[in-house]
Structures are given as C-alpha cells and as structure tokens.
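Box 3.1 A note on notation
Throughout this textbook, protein chains are presented in two layers. The first layer is the amino acid sequence; the second is a token string describing backbone geometry. Keep the layers aligned when reading.
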Amino acid sequence: MKLATFLLVLSITAWGFQAPEQHSSEPSAKAVARIQKEVRHELLMLPYFGVFDNIAFKVEGYNVTLLGQVVRPSLKSDAERVVKGVEGVEKVDNQIEVLPPSSMDDRLRLRLFRAIYEYAPLQKYELGVNKPIRIIVKGGRVSLEGVVDNETDKNIAGIRANSVSGIFSVTNNLQVVK
C-alpha cells in the first residue's frame, strides 16, 4: 500500500512540474493567418499608438517579432504584453526602438503633421483614429511609413515632408496599396 501511495505522489509531483507543452510542428497556414490577424488587431487597439509611432511585426511559426519605432517607452512594453496574450503565441521578440526624447523632434513632428495631413489632396488620410501615414522623426531625420492609395499621394507626402524646414533628410517608405 505504501508503494502505491508513493507512486501516486511521485506521478502527481512529476506531472505538476512538467515543462509547458510545446507545439511539435509548425502551425498551419490558417493558424498563422489567425495569429497575424489577432496581433494586428491588438496592436491597433493600443490606446497610445499614434501617428508618430510605427509598429510592425513578423509571425514565424508560433513566434512574433515586433519591429518599429515608438515615442513612448510604455508603448513598447504595452505592445509586447498584448501580443503575448494572443492565443497561440509562444514567444515575443520585442525589437521596437524607443525614440529619444527631443523637443526639436517634437516640434518637427507637429510641423510635419500639418504639412502632410492639412494639405488638401492628402486630407482624406486624416480621417479615422489610426492614420495610415506614420511620421517617424529621430534626430531631425524623417521616415514616412505606412500606406497610401497611389503613387501620386506617396510623392506628394514626400514633397510636403521635404518642405518642412529644420529637417536633415526624408526617407519615403510609404507603400502603395489598392
């Protein structure tokens, strides 16, 4: 009887200390698509995710890599937290860069916002909470990220950004999507 009790306790103890179950194979395309959709949704719902932040991600199997630049340090940790909560995500590699605080960059961000979003041909992009044209400023260097409807809008945004004084360079990474 004592041996049976000992084996029962031993099996319960061993069971209690098992490593978390890992997936033995790669996820299906459907599972990856679901993870991508949920990660995108969670990131877009972050309360302080704004036009001066750019967050991108890659899904490889059950692992997610976060990329981009943010103005607030808390946004980096918030992004990692919400992505870790997505069902099926096992690991998050947070490579988001927190932009250094700079009053000069803050002034440039506001002037760039006005130059781009208040220009009549580009005002359609100002609608909605999540602006499709992201304005990233670091040390006076500007990067335009996001999406626009056509090549003309991409070029206009780049020209408008280049027209703001005090900028050292502009990199136009806007993608054209139909």
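The chain has two domains: 27-98, 103-176. Residues 35 and 88 are 7 Å apart (CA to CA).
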